[in-house]
């Protein structure tokens, strides 16, 4: 890793560790080993990203609440995996398909847990693996609850993987709007041509989507009709995980 980047990370750590006493550029330059000019440039980058702000009282620098929001999201991801395990087993037992628990990272999903299908022909994936969020069910169901700014920022990254991949931002937004309305997403061979899936979002106690639960398998078994048939099971599991995670609003099809 670049030495300047390492020192920049160190600078950020110093600011977070001493958040109760805003630091000046001189203080931070000395503590991090950066020159004053490099310290100033690094601070401007952190300010622009929303992680650091300048105190109006002391003139020093301190972390913003965004840092703590990110930490809370990380903890939520760790908690949701524990909560989800028995519900994933329930879905796996009834569907006999691979069950995934995914989180969103920019325009990718990361698989944080899974239960493999007992069938010899099944969807291949690994825990820690990535897939394009706009081309898999767990990703689309999480993208459906992101704002337009988030989607617009990644519009240039919509790459075709199969003939069914949605690469038009307008078409993707239409699909996501429907997903947000009905509560679940379907993948019709958009990442791998012979693999489909269905997924529903998982919310936390702050009413934010923190993960998604879905099943995937070969399209010869997971036909559109079968995926729709499994939709209540997937929705129920995602709802139960959400409620155990502190979510209290009405779920899809329920009154608030």
Please supply descriptive tags for the structure shown above:
256 residues; alpha+beta; Arc Repressor Mutant, subunit A; Beta-Lactamase; 2 domains; 6-stranded antiparallel β-sheet; two-stranded antiparallel ribbon; 45% helix; elongated
SS field, number of helical segments: 8
Shape verdict: elongated
Quantity of strands, as a count: 8
Largest sheet: 6 strands, antiparallel
Strand order of the largest sheet: 5-4-3-8-7-6
Oligomerization status of the protein chains? single chain
- Counting structural domains, the number is 2
Question: From the helix content, strand content and strand pairing, which structural class follows?
Answer: alpha+beta
Strand content range: 15-25%
CATH C-level name of the largest domain? Alpha Beta
CATH superfamily of the largest domain: GAF domain
Mean pLDDT: 86
Tell me the radius of gyration. 21 Å
State the helicity in percent bands.
40-55%
**CATH architecture classification name of the largest domain:** 2-Layer Sandwich
Q: CATH topology of the largest domain, what is it called?
A: Beta-Lactamase
Spell out the helices and strands N to C.
HHHEEHEEEHHHEEEH
Distance between the termini: 49 Å
The parts where pLDDT drops under 50 for at least 5 residues are: none
């Amino acid at each position: 890793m670049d030495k300047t980047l390492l020192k920049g990370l160190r600078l950020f750590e110093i600011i977070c560790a001493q958040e109760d006493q805003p630091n000046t550029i001189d203080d931070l330059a000395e503590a991090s080993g950066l020159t004053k000019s490099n310290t100033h440039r690094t601070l401007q980058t952190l300010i622009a990203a929303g992680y650091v702000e300048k105190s109006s009282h002391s003139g020093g620098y301190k972390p913003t609440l965004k840092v703590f929001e990110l930490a809370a999201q990380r903890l939520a991801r760790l908690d949701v995996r524990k909560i989800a395990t028995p519900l994933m087993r329930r879905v796996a037992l009834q569907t006999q398909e691979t069950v995934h628990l995914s989180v969103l990272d920019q325009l990718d999903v990361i698989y944080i847990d899974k239960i493999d299908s007992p069938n010899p022909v099944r969807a291949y994936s690994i825990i820690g693996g990535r897939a394009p969020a706009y081309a898999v069910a767990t990703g689309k169901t999480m993208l459906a609850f992101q704002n337009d700014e988030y989607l617009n920022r990644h519009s240039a990254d919509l790459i075709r993987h199969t003939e069914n991949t949605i690469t038009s931002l307008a078409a993707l937004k239409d699909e996501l709007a429907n997903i947000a309305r009905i509560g679940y997403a379907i993948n019709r061979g958009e990442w791998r041509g012979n693999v489909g899936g269905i997924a529903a979002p998982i919310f936390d106690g702050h009413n934010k989507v923190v993960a998604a639960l879905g099943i995937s398998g070969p399209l010869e078994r997971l036909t559109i009709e079968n995926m729709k048939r499994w939709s209540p099971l997937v929705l129920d599991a995602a709802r139960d995980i959400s409620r155990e995670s502190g979510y209290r609003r009405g779920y899809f099809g329920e009154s608030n």
